[in-house]
Amino acid sequence: MEPVDSPGNEPVGAPAQDDGVAAAGSDRSAAEVARYPERLLNEGHERTPHPSDEASALAMIQKRVRKRDSVAMYNLGSQYYYGGHGLPKDVPRAIELWIESAELGSVYAHHNLGIAYYYGEGVEEDKPRGIQHWQEAAMKGDVESRHNLGADEFSNGNCELAVQHWMISAKMGYDVSLNAIKKMFLRGQATKAQYAEALRGYGDAVEEMKSHQREEAKRLGA
């Protein structure tokens, strides 16, 4: 989703998550939209040549939507949100598609709906509903939604709960959460032990990702 403004009820001097809450999903959404047609081909959903124009790519996505593909619904919703592939920008329609996608289990749809409802983007602001969507996504392993739950707790003055959420996302390799814990530690809002635990967990996650990338490079003969 496009970055949106941070909530106005955050304490003065909030950690770096204040602009990371909303922006967390923006690059991911756009990238997923761009990669989706190719992904369908790689997964064997389509046996036709790679679409060479927007109309063909849109037709491919719509075909999967008619088959109740949650990922396709999420991506078509994103096309409406951005006004991509020749579609008019239609945020209410995007929300409808994301709701359907979320009902079918899409983590990304839950994440984006969390942003939409939390900030009132295309829908009436409903922070509890937004948080509920982030909770659904976080329980399924979405690191950015987990971070956002921490940001909400921090904005409400619940530092201990914020650290608990950010500890989880930092240990998943999310540097924004690690930096938030660091700033809390420097301000006396988190303990040295908590920051040290976050650092170790983040380092382990990054090393594991690097190891996976090295193995993938070997497999590809790079």
Task: Write a structural description.
With 222 residues, the chain is mainly α. It has eleven helices and no strands. The protein has helices at 20-23, 26-42, 54-66, 70-82, 91-103, 107-119, 127-139, 143-155, 159-170, 175-186, 192-219. The longest helix has 28 residues, at 192-219. The model is unreliable at 2-23 and 40-50 (pLDDT under 50).
Largest sheet data: none
Q: What is the beta-strand fraction?
A: under 5%
What fraction, in percent, of the residue positions are helical?
Answer: 55-70%
Query: What is the second-level CATH architecture of the largest domain?
Result: Alpha Horseshoe
Structural class: mainly alpha
Low-confidence stretches: 2-23, 40-50
Total number of beta strands = 0
- Look up the CATH topology of the largest domain: Serine Threonine Protein Phosphatase 5, Tetratricopeptide repeat
- The 3D shape can be described as flat
Mean pLDDT: 81
Region (Disordered): 1-55
InterPro entries: Sel1-like, Sel1_AlgK, TPR-like_helical_dom_sf
Pfam families: Sel1 (PF08238)
Biased composition (Basic and acidic residues): 35-53
